[in-house]
Amino acid sequence: MTLDQLLMLKAVAESGSLRAASELLHKTQPAISQGIRQLEAQLSITLFNREGYRLSLTENGRTLYQHALRLLNEAATLKQVAHHLSTGNEASITLAFEASFDLSRILPILEMTQNEFPNTQIQLKQEYLTGAVEALKTGEADIVISPVDIGINQSGQMELVLLHQGKLIDVASPRLLLRHPKLSFSNELLNEYQIIVKDTGTGTKNREYGVQDGQRRWYVNDFHTKKMLILSGMGWGKLPDFLIINELASNALNTITLQDKQNEISLNHFAMKSKNKVFGPVASKLWKNLSLYRQQQTQ
Q1: Using the 8-state DSSP alphabet, how is residue 189 labeled?
Q2: What are phi and psi of 146, to 5 degrees?
Q3: Confidence of residue 150 (pLDDT cuts 50, 70, 90)
Q4: Theoretical Cys-Cys bridge with 225: which of 178, 193, 204, 220, CB 3.0 to 4.6 Å?
Q5: Do domains 3-86 and 92-165+268-297 have the same CATH topology?
Q6: Closest CA relative to residue 163, chosen from 97, 117, 224
Q7: Interior CA angle at 252 toward 258 and 107, to 5°?
Q8: Would you say 73 and 11 are in contact if contact means Cβ atoms under 8 Å apart?
Q9: Nearest CA to 189 among 154, 235, 220, 130?
Q10: Which ranges constitute the DSSP H helices of 192-260?
Q11: What are the CA-CA distances from residue 146 to residues 41, 91, 122, 168, 253 (Å)?
Q12: Which CATH architecture best describes the domain 3-86?
């Protein structure tokens, strides 16, 4: 059984005649007739009723026809993927983003990439703290989105494009704050649990920021778990502003004002890539669209 024979089956089934199939496939009628008979012999099944004016599928023929359509569609897809790769397009690219960035902001860019390059797999990796930048340095990601500090590009090996400015805000539930009606200083929260998201990179190994000595703490793997615990009154901590807009508006969460602590941290989220990285067409287009993002937002 060959793809050519399946194409003959499809053409005859849909046109109802050898003549029409011959014109469609640019083959002679005897060649198509022979191809169909060979297929029937190989499958030990009669595919067409030949008694009427038009050729019509038998019951078995209709079943085989549906399977043939699936195989032909898969073959066409295989050819498209092969062409996609032969023209230099990447099989896959990886975009890592630090979880304090609101990914919904660039969904239109990701959708454009998906529509233009449907045969390239886009792998999205959510990281925390230094994990995204580390993924870029180790080659595990092609492009990353992450907050950066001033010294991150001292080597000059990265290209950075500012995407968005966000915040991390100290919050707690009204239930927790009722236990501290005159809350002013961080040491008053020593016996409450500060909820801390673990770094998926190694940049903060053996170091903690914004955590006072003696502070009770719980560690979690993601912001959504952290938010759930804080909402329940089991702890407090910083959350990205975009994750808590509704909760702050409804007073399900309240901001904390501590006189001896930075209660808000501004975050400049950058798209980053290695200057030495040679991109294919897909990553190049994605990077170009990310580079134009902030410009388009201000127009």
Answers
A1: G
A2: -160, 150
A3: very low
A4: 220
A5: no
A6: 97
A7: 100
A8: no
A9: 235
A10: 223-231, 245-249
A11: 62, 24, 18, 13, 26
A12: Orthogonal Bundle (1.10)
Per the listing, tokens 């004016």 go with 53
**The pTM of the whole model exceeds 0.85:** no
Q: How far apart are CA 290 and CA 299, in angstroms?
A: 15
Give the Cα separation of 94 and 96 in Å (integer).
6
| 99-119 pLDDT per residue, tens | 999 999 999 999 999 999 998
Task: Answer whether CATH 3.40.190.10 is correct for domain 92-165+268-297.
Answer: yes
Do the Cβ atoms of 281 and 88 come closer than 8 Å? yes
Any idea which architecture 167-266 has in CATH? 3-Layer(aba) Sandwich (3.40)
Concatenating the DSSP letter of every residue in 34-70 gives: HHHHHHHHHHT---EE-SSSS-EE-HHHHHHHHHHHH
Angle subtended at Cα 112 by Cα 111 and Cα 114, rounded to the nearest 5 degrees: 60
Residue 281, token pair as written in the block? 């067409």
Q: Once rounded to an integer, what is the mean pLDDT over residues 221-237?
A: 97
Encode pLDDT of 35-76 as tens digits: 888 888 888 989 888 887 788 888 888 888 898 888 888 877
* DSSP string across 58-106: -HHHHHHHHHHHHHHHHHHHHHHHHHHHHTT--SEEEEEEETTS-GGGG
Q: Give the start-to-end residue ranges of the domains of the chain.
A: 3-86, 92-165+268-297, 167-266
What distance in Å separates the CA atoms of residue 82 and residue 295, rounded to the nearest whole number?
36
Closest CA to 287 of 200, 158, 201: 158
Of 221, 214, 172, which Cα lies nearest the Cα of 196?
221
Looking at every residue in the chain, the average pLDDT score rounds to 89
